[in-house]
């Protein structure tokens, strides 16, 4: 039986890779311009990191983690997100001893056992950026500004930035209690999972997609009405800084985010072009995560962009495939040897050149050159070769000229349009 990829795990094929590389390169350029450095973290961590960091009573930890026991009996998990790992690395390597403020980004695959559908996969890629060590609301605005700048730079349009505040350790318990009381009166409407969440983590009921649960929360109390003075001040400042930067946003009091570590600022960027899985990015502040994973008291804020969703939104007209610059068509054995010598030189000079390994007829070589969408074809014939010359054909305007093989490199460099 033919072996196929696992459901929810995708191949990214050569004809799509240009988009991925473009997005990754733009992220590096933009983020590094904002003072961020790349960090690479392992794909597998101790399960505890995520259960404590993300929260025991979240969907991710309860039912979506790829957890297994290794041969030594350790419980390990394929990372469902990168924030907790980045925080662990910051603590483990005492990055704070060099400078308490760390601006880090990472790009890579994450794993969640969710039901696959369009825009939702079991292996998916995130571009994640985090700032550790700053409580000032200025940095909340700064990461959002960087995010929007990046999304615009890759060509995304019609996005909506939604923000909310989730309060802090001091004010949220009061809200949680009010929410619990309110939802207890509607418990008959709640699904089995939410009946349980009502006891363990009522905020998570906001994430439930079941219609009757959605209806139950319509008039639920809003966290923003329960936050204390400090959290209110922080939120007002974030909004003020966003306005100063000319960014428009929508207040979404129902956005609670699916991970438990958030405090104060939470945000998402959504696109209505995406259908039901419409969040391109999610993020927020998490001032207690470091303590949850057993570390120092370090504030943090960041976001993660879902690459598959982002890539599905890239402008359709933009060309991402890199075609070869030149095709070498050789006629006869001697010319073929010369083509082999030249192609090796050209590759070393960064010219994307191709030849036909089968040494077929000129007609079939030209057909292949056409298919590869090259800019030029160099035709090496026995006769011209004796005079040290070859014919260079411009595949756009179909003009041809004889050129000196000794000058090939300079001639090509002056003619090829490098992307
Ligand atoms: P998240 O909202 O769980 O947040 O994921 C962020 C983004 O990853 C989503 O907006 C979505 O684009 C993408 N994503 C999530 N799950 C899937 C999936 N199954 N298939 C395809 N794409 C998906 C986090 O992961 C937080 N760590 C973000 C963060 C960083 N908060 C602070 N710092």
Portion of residues in beta strands equals: 15-25%
How many DSSP-defined strands? 16
What small ligands are held by the chains?
A: histidyl-adenosine monophosphate
Number of helices, counting only DSSP H or I runs of 4 residues or more: 15
Structural class label: alpha+beta
Tell me about the biggest sheet? 8 strands, mixed
Gyration radius, in Å: 28 Å
The global form is elongated
Nearest-integer average pLDDT: 94
Describe the structure.
- The chain has 419 residues and is of the alpha+beta class.
- It has 15 helices and 16 strands.
- It has helices at 14-33, 47-54, 59-64, 83-92, 137-153, 172-184, 192-200, 211-216, 229-244, 289-292, 307-312, 333-348, 362-371, 382-386, 408-415, and strands at 37-38, 44-46, 66-69, 75-78, 102-111, 123-132, 159-165, 250-251, 265-271, 279-285, 300-306, 326-330, 353-355, 376-380, 389-394, 400-404.
- The strands form 3 sheets. An 8-stranded mixed sheet has the order 1-5-6-11-10-9-7-8, sandwiched between helices. Strands 13-12-14-15-16 form a 5-stranded mixed sheet, with helices on both faces.
- Strand 15 and strand 16 form a beta hairpin.
- Helix 1 (14-33) packs antiparallel against helix 5 and helix 5 (137-153) runs parallel beside helix 9 (229-244).
- The radius of gyration is 28 Å and the shape is elongated.
- The mean pLDDT is 94.
- Residues 81, 83, 112, 114, 120-121, 124, 126, 128, 130, 258-259, 279-284, 302-304, 306, 308-309 line the site of histidyl-adenosine monophosphate (HAM).
């Amino acid at each position: 039986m033919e072996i196929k990829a696992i459901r929810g795990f995708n191949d990214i094929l050569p004809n799509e890779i240009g988009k991925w590389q473009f997005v990754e390169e733009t992220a590096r350029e933009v983020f590094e311009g904002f003072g961020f450095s790349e960090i690479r973290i392992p794909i597998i961590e101790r399960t505890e990191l995520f259960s404590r960091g993300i929260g025991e009573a979240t969907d991710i930890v309860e039912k979506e983690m790829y957890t297994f026991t290794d041969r030594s009996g350790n419980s390990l998990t394929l990372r469902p997100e990168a924030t907790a790992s980045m925080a662990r690395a910051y603590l483990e390597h005492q990055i704070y001893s060099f400078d308490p403020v760390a601006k880090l980004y990472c790009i890579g695959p994450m794993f969640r056992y969710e039901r696959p559908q369009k825009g939702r996969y079991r292996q998916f890629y995130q571009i994640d950026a985090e700032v550790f060590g700053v409580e000032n609301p200025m940095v909340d605005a700064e990461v959002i500004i960087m995010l929007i700048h990046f999304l615009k730079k890759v060509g995304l349009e019609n996005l909506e930035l939604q923000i909310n505040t989730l309060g802090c350790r001091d004010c949220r318990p009061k809200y949680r209690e009010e929410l619990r009381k309110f939802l207890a009166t509607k418990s008959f409407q709640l699904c089995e999972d939410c009946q349980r969440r009502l006891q363990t983590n009522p905020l998570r009921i906001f994430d439930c997609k079941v219609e009757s649960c959605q209806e139950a929360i319509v008039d639920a109390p809003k966290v923003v009405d329960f936050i204390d003075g400090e959290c209110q001040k922080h939120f007002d400042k974030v909004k003020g800084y966003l306005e100063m930067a000319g960014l428009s946003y929508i207040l979404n009091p129902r956005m609670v985010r699916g991970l438990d570590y958030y405090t104060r600022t939470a945000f998402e960027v959504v696109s209505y072009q995406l259908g039901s899985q419409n969040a391109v990015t999610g993020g927020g502040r998490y001032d207690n995560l470091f303590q949850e994973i057993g570390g120092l008291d370090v504030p943090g804020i960041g976001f993660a962009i879902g690459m598959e969703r982002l890539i599905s939104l890239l402008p359709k007209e933009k060309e991402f495939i890199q075609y070869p610059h030149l095709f070498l068509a050789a006629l006869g054995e001697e010319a073929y040897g010369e083509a082999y010598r030249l192609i090796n030189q050209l590759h070393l000079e960064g010219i994307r050149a191709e030849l036909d390994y089968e040494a077929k007829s000129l007609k079939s070589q030209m057909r292949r050159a056409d298919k590869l969408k090259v800019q030029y074809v160099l035709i090496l014939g026995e006769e011209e070769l004796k005079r040290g010359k070859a014919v260079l054909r411009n595949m756009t305007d179909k003009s041809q000229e004889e050129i000196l093989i000794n000058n090939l490199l300079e001639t090509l460099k002056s003619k090829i349009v490098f992307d």
